[in-house]
Every structure is written in structure tokens, then in C-alpha cells.
Amino acid sequence: MTAVSKEESMLLIQHAISAYLNEGKSQKELGELLGIEGPRISEGKLGKWKLSSQQRQVIIDNYGYPRREKGQYIKAEVYDTVTEFIDDFEDSSKKRLKRRWYELLMRKDYQDVIISKSRRSSDPFDIRFGSELEPLVFDIALVEKLLSQPETKIWYEHYHSNIGYVLSARRSSEESYFSLVSSVHEDLIDELDSSFEHILFRIAQFKFELMPEFSFFHDAVAPSIPRKELVISGDEVLNFKADCCRVKFNEIADIFGKRDYLKSFLSTSIIPEGTEINDKPDNWKRVILRLYLSESMHYHLWIRLDDTEHLADYTEGYDVEYYAGINDDGLVRNIVIKDLCRMNFLKEIEIIRKWCGWPYDFNDDIKREVAKVGGYVPGAEVL
């Protein structure tokens, strides 16, 4: 084997230390991997000794080479297997929807729109003449109070079950709605626009179906899906794109049903352009699969789900591949399966192919590309 230079040794040791610390491990554990005492790692980092050829290869096999060919930087969810990602897909999709709705309802500008769309009169000087009472101020606090009433769940269930039904069925919902509003303030019904019942229903639906602890006045936990910063490098041995509009996984987190959503119902131009929040469940139009074979002979699968229909609004005349990351929480979702088993990586590709409902079998195409770049092709005799 070629001797390791001092500069390369220092670079590789620093690279290995960074990788170990990123995994929450210690330099002592790195020393065990290299077959040396932990304190010697710091000395090697300073060039006081050099890695052997065998130690160099150990680092490359486990963490790749620090100087690589060009790669792609992405922020992605990371899973160990395709099955782990698929099993988590429903829960993670609901978490994504929950966070978007929470951020939308907690924003002051959206709250102002809800109030302005809900009042029968948006004139703040609208006063009821002949009344000794102070004019009723309808604000987000009243919406909060309506959500917290015991009658709210009864009304919500009536409304939910009677949407689209005959008038006689709708009357039951209306009666419970009037009862709910009157329980908060007897004059409130006179202040509300007819559209408010539907607005309240959508907010209640979010609270009852996704986030029971939701309140306009108290912060709650709506965690985002953890993502890591990654640079994927190596030879691309698969780049496959296909439509997925009719795939069933697009409906998996649509707990609200195929109806209008809150933001589209409000239909406002008050929210500054570019600051809108996507309040709809994920509805992916396209899946892109990319399989990379790294210099250290590790396979990494990049799965990208995107909404190409909306991307067209942002990317006209530009490279859609570049602009696909403009909104990772709404328009794009990146998933990376790290370190696919060298012997079974084709089985992992087959799992994701079936999940996407594609009839294509690209095993032979992958094997040809792997062979071109010197990778191991399971089951193939090397001549």
C-alpha cells in the first residue's frame, strides 16, 4: 500500500474526530477503532505521528474520504432502512401538518384575518344604538373561549356529520351552534358573519383531531421532523423520476377529508406574498429516487417528494432541481436512507418501488451502473 503522508494523516484524523463527535462518541472510542490509545489521537491530529495504510483504510471504510468529488448539499430526514421510513410515514406526515396549522393559527396576521372575515361588520365604530351595554368587541379571545366551551364538541360532531346533508339534518348543527355562541355571549350571534361557523369548525377540527392542547394564548409543542445537513457524494447509479399523484400514501395524513382548508377559505391578500403557510396535508406530485455509491463503497438512497405543480409557479425558466428546496416544509420533503447493505440494497429499492406503485423494475439498470463504477453487483460473477 502507498505510504500515508503527514498532511493526509492529519486530515484523515481530523475528519474521523469530527465524525465521532457528531455521533456522540469520544476520542477514546476512535482510538479503539484504530487500535491505539485514546490520548494519541490528539498527537496524531498535530502531526506527531502518521496513520498506517491499514488505519487510513479503516477511517475511509467507516467515514469516507474527507476530500471527495462534487456532492449535493441537502437537509433531509435520515432513516436506516426504507421500511423504517415507510412505517413512520403516516405519523411524520401528521406531525408536519400539525406544525403548519399550529404556526398558521399562532401568527398575528392570520388571527387578524380570521377576525376580520368573521365579523358581520368590520367597522370598529359600529355601535348598537339604544343599548346601555358597551359595544361587543369580537377578538381572538372570544374565539378561544368558544373553543373551550363544553358545548363545542357537541356542535363540532353535529357539524362534521351533517356537512353536505339535507336541510333538516343541518338544522341540528345550527341549533347546537346557536347554543354554543349564546353560552359565551347572548349578543355574539348578531356580530358574526355567516362564514364564521365554518371558520370555527376548521379551527375546532385542528384542535380535536390533531392538537387537543392547542390554545391561542399558550405556547405548545409542535415539533418539526428532525433533519440533518448532508452532503451526498459519489457516483449516481440511479436517478429515476415518476408521477405519484394517484398513489394512496398521498391520502394517509389527510384527516380533514377532501374539503376546503382554512387558508383557502379565508382567501385573503392581506398576508404578505412569500410568507404564506401551507395548511393542507402533503399532496406529492412526484417522487425522485437517487442512489449513490460513495468512494468508500457505501450506498445511500435519496428519496425526494415534491409538489411539482406548485413548483412551476416558482421555477418558470429556471432549473427545477435547484429551486426544489425553496420550502422544505411544504413543497419538498427530502429523505435519505444511509448505508444500505451492500448485499441487499436492491431489495431496499424494490420496497420503495412497490410503495410508490411503479410497475418499473430497474434492478438491471442499477446493476449496469454499479458495474461501470466498480461496485459490487450481488450474484454476478466477475470475470
Report what the structure shows.
By secondary structure, the chain is α+β, with helices and mostly antiparallel strands. The radius of gyration is 28 Å and the shape is elongated. The longest helix is centred in the first third of the chain and has 25 residues, at 82-106. It has helices at 6-22, 27-34, 40-45, 53-63, 82-106, 108-118, 140-148, 151-162, 167-184, 188-191, 196-209, 262-266, 308-315, 320-323, 345-356, 363-372; strands at 72-79, 228-232, 235-243, 286-293, 299-306, 332-340. Helix 1 (6-22) packs parallel to helix 4 (53-63) and helix 8 (151-162) runs antiparallel to helix 9 (167-184). Strands 2-1-6-5-4-3 form a six-stranded mixed sheet. Among the domains are: 6-63, no CATH class; 72-88 and 226-252 and 282-372, no CATH class. Strand 4 and strand 5 (299-306) form a beta hairpin. It is 45% helix and 12% strand.
Entry summary:
By secondary structure, the protein is an alpha+beta fold. It contains 16 helices and 6 strands.
The secondary-structure element order is: HHHHEHHHHHHHEEHEEHHEHH
Q: Total number of β-strand segments? A: 6
Strand content: 5-15%
The first-to-last residue Cα distance is 24 Å
